[in-house]
Amino acid sequence: MSREHAAQRIIQDIKSSDSRVQIIGFIKDLVDDDHIILKDKVNDIKIDIKKVDFPFQKDDLINVIGELNINMAGEKEIEAEIIQDKKNLNFDYYLKLYEIKKELNLV
């Protein structure tokens, strides 16, 4: 069984047509045992962490891959399938590279 490709996005570029996404950002808040708020430079999004091991803490830089869910009010949430530590990533360079890829229609 193969899974659908996870589209690389920044939070503001998440499309309602996306079913799986990959987002890199900083942990803004630990809401409860089941949810966190992930923030990139501009926006934030709620992440459901029930199905993954979560050894991270506030302000850690992580990569989240998961299924996008949109509720009736239009609020977006990601159900995490994989979470990776990205503490060694230069986030500013990552965002610049993302913008270049976006201009070239590669994301």
Distance linking N and C termini: 24 Å
How would you write the strand order of the largest sheet? 2-3-4-6-5
Name of the CATH superfamily: Nucleic acid-binding proteins
Tell me the CATH architecture.
Beta Barrel
Shape: globular
Would you tell me which CATH topology applies? OB fold (Dihydrolipoamide Acetyltransferase, E2P)
β-strand percent reads 35-45%
Spans of at least 5 consecutive residues whose pLDDT stays below 50 are none
Structure overview:
By secondary structure, the protein is mainly β. The chain has one domain: Beta Barrel (OB fold (Dihydrolipoamide Acetyltransferase, E2P)). It is built from 1 helix and 6 strands. Strands 2-3-4-6-5 form a 5-stranded mixed barrel. A hairpin with a 4-residue loop joins strand 3 (about 35-40) and strand 4 (about 45-50). The mean pLDDT is about 95.
Helices and strands in order, then pairings?
Layout: E1 7-8, E2 20-30, E3 35-39, E4 44-48, E5 61-70, E6 76-85, H1 91-103
Parallel strand pairs: 1-2, 4-6
Antiparallel strand pairs: 2-3, 2-5, 3-4, 5-6
State the main characteristics.
globular; single chain; about 110 residues; mainly beta; OB fold (Dihydrolipoamide Acetyltransferase, E2P); 5-stranded mixed barrel
